[in-house]
Design goal:
There is one protein chain. The protein has 2 domains: 80 residues, no CATH class; 114 residues, no CATH class. Helix 1 crosses helix 3 and helix 2 runs antiparallel to helix 3. Strands 1, 2, 3, 4 and 5 form a 5-stranded mixed beta sheet that branches. The protein has 7 helices and 5 strands. With 235 residues, the chain is an alpha+beta fold. This is DUF4191 domain-containing protein. Keywords: Membrane, Transmembrane, Transmembrane helix. It holds the Pfam family DUF4191. It comes from Cryobacterium melibiosiphilum.
Length: 235
C-alpha cells in the first residue's frame, strides 16, 4: 500500500517590521487622535533645525547643507519612533486601566532596569478584586495598591507591617493606582518608580527581594492582563 504523506501545516507567517509598526500606529490612532500631527511635527522640527544650522554655520556650502539635512531626516525618524512607542504604550494601558491585574501587567512588562516586580499581587480582596502589588528596587520597597484607596488602605497597612517586620529600616513607599483623583495613572507607574530616590545597592535589592519572597501571598490572586492583547472596548 502506498503511504499517503500528510503535509504538515506551515506556521503562520509573522508580520514584517513595517507591518507591525503600521498596526501599532493604527491601534494608537484609535485612542490618540493627535498622534498624526505630533509625529509630523516630530519629523519636521529636526529637519528645520538641521537646515537652519547648516545655513548658519556653513552658508553656501552645498555639501554641508546636504549632510545636515540627512542628519535632520534621521533625527526626525528617530523622534517619530520614540513618540510612537510612548503613545502606543499609553494607548495600550488605557485599554486595561481599571481592570483587575492591570498593575501586574505593568510590573511584568514595563519595569525599568534595577527594579524587580511580579504580575501576581501579594494581597487581594476576593470580593472586590482590589489588590496590593510589591516591587523592589534601588528606591527600596514599593507597595502598589490597585483600587479605591478607601478599600485598599487596610491591605496596604498589613503588607507594610509585614515588610517592616522582616526588613526593619528599609524604606517602604506606597503608591496608589485607581479612581482617586491623586492616584497615579497606569501608564506613568513605571516612571514613578524610577523617580524614587535610590537608597539600596544592586546587591541589597537582590537580598531584599529574596527575603520578601518568603512572605508568600494571599490567595486567590488574579493574574495580570496583557495590554498588548487587550481588546478595545466597543462604543
Amino acid at each position: 500500500m502506498a503511504r499517503t504523506k500528510e503535509k504538515t501545516p506551515k506556521p503562520p507567517k509573522k508580520p514584517g517590521r513595517m507591518k507591525q509598526m503600521w498596526q501599532v500606529f493604527q491601534m494608537t490612532r484609535r485612542y490618540d487622535s493627535n498622534i498624526v500631527w505630533i509625529m509630523v511635527l516630530a519629523f519636521l522640527v529636526p529637519i528645520l533645525v538641521a537646515v537652519g544650522l547648516a545655513l548658519l554655520l556653513s552658508p553656501g556650502n552645498v555639501f554641508s547643507i546636504v549632510l545636515w539635512s540627512i542628519s535632520g531626516v534621521l533625527a526626525g525618524i528617530l523622534a517619530m519612533l520614540i513618540i510612537l512607542g510612548r503613545r502606543a504604550e499609553k494607548a495600550a494601558y488605557s485599554q486595561i486601566e481599571g481592570q483587575p491585574g492591570a498593575v501586574g501587567a505593568v510590573l511584568r512588562s514595563s519595569l525599568k532596569r534595577g527594579w524587580v516586580g511580579s504580575e501576581m499581587p501579594v494581597a487581594v480582596n476576593g470580593k472586590t478584586q482590589d489588590a496590593v502589588y510589591r516591587a523592589v528596587g534601588r528606591g527600596g520597597v514599593v507597595l502598589i495598591s490597585e483600587g479605591p484607596r478607601t478599600r485598599t488602605a487596610r491591605m496596604v497597612d498589613e503588607e507594610r507591617r509585614k515588610v517592616t517586620r522582616v526588613l526593619g529600616t528599609i524604606p517602604v513607599t506606597v503608591v496608589s493606582v485607581g479612581p482617586d483623583e491623586d492616584a497615579i495613572p497606569l501608564h506613568k507607574l513605571a516612571g514613578k518608580l524610577t523617580r524614587i530616590k535610590p537608597t539600596l545597592t544592586k546587591a541589597e535589592v537582590l537580598a531584599v527581594n529574596n527575603r520578601l519572597s518568603s512572605l508568600g501571598t494571599k490567595l486567590p490572586i488574579p493574574k495580570g492582563v496583557d495590554p498588548m492583547k487587550a481588546r478595545p472596548q466597543r462604543g
